Amino acid sequence: MSTPKEIVQNYIHGDYIDAIKKAYTWRNAKNSAPHLLPHLKPGLKILDVGCGPGSITADFVRAVGPTGKVVCVEINESILNEAKSNLIKWGVYEGNSIEFVVDNILFLDKFDDNEFDIVHVHQVIQHLKDPVKGLEAMKRVCKKNGIVSIRESIYEAFYCMPENYQAIKLWKELYLKININSGFNPNAGKFLKKWCREAGFDVNNTKKFNYNLGNWFFTQREDIKWWGLTWADRVVNSGFAKKLLEDKQLGVTENDLQYLSDGWKKWTDEEDALFIVDHGEVIYFK
Ligand SMILES: C[S@@+](CC[C@H](N)C(=O)[O-])C[C@H]1O[C@@H](n2cnc3c(N)ncnc32)[C@H](O)[C@@H]1O
């Protein structure tokens, strides 16, 4: 079993450099937790597991208001501190009840059984070597009749226009391979029913288990620029780039990374550019 330090080191996107922070703080509850929106209301106690820089969490805090509580959990203490600074900077800290806890989703051992109304996770299960254990822990800390909310990507279902864009095809291939070589499942979103079943969720009860597909769409010029240029930066500057270079099985060179970066930049000027990221979304009533 990996130590927390090893988990942070093995995290596929590496250190939280500026390009990654910028990418993550674009996220909010509307674009990254749409399946959960109808269930958010004042007074609830929510656990946001693997909260990252906290931009989705900020919307949870706004939704539950001063009578509710949001607990942010991270394995990476430095990004947890940053989430706290962000919530202060975004004006959602004052007057609300928020707690920040370093913990591992595999255990959530700082929490009691049946503690939360909602236990939420976004794009964390896909970074686990033992996803079922993470889901078991989430279910354990969720109250009876509370909600376990999960949203994970299906990277094999990245859609790109124009079709057959060589640099992006290669980027997708490397993205899938580096995850698999590192022991993670890049298609976690489509495994959620299976893993939830293995974690003891009653997946055949339609009153309890709800599965849906949700997407990130990048279709408008401004969004395309943002997505493409963020990746143009990430493929050369981030820990993700370092991991690609280190993986001897892949044989990636710095020139290859530069080719990917230039490709992403060029893609943002394509007239028909469009990019879709599929996600599996689960709402489970415990
Ligand atoms: C892709 S980011 C998602 C962040 C946030 N949920 C969002 O969507 O903006 C994944 C986060 O999971 C955290 N993480 C990875 N393994 C973890 C673990 N075992 N326990 C808790 N958090 C973990 C990472 O530190 C990282 O911040």
UniProtKB/TrEMBL annotation:
InterPro entries xrefs: Methyltranfer_dom, SAM-dependent_MTases_sf
TM ranges: none
Keyword annotations: Methyltransferase, Transferase
Methyltransferase domain boundaries: 41-154
One GO BP annotation of this record: methylation
Pfam families xref list: Methyltransf_31 (PF13847)
Any one Gene Ontology molecular-function term assigned to this protein's record: methyltransferase activity
Protein name as it appears in the record: S-adenosyl-L-methionine-dependent methyltransferase
Organism of this sequence: Ascoidea rubescens DSM 1968
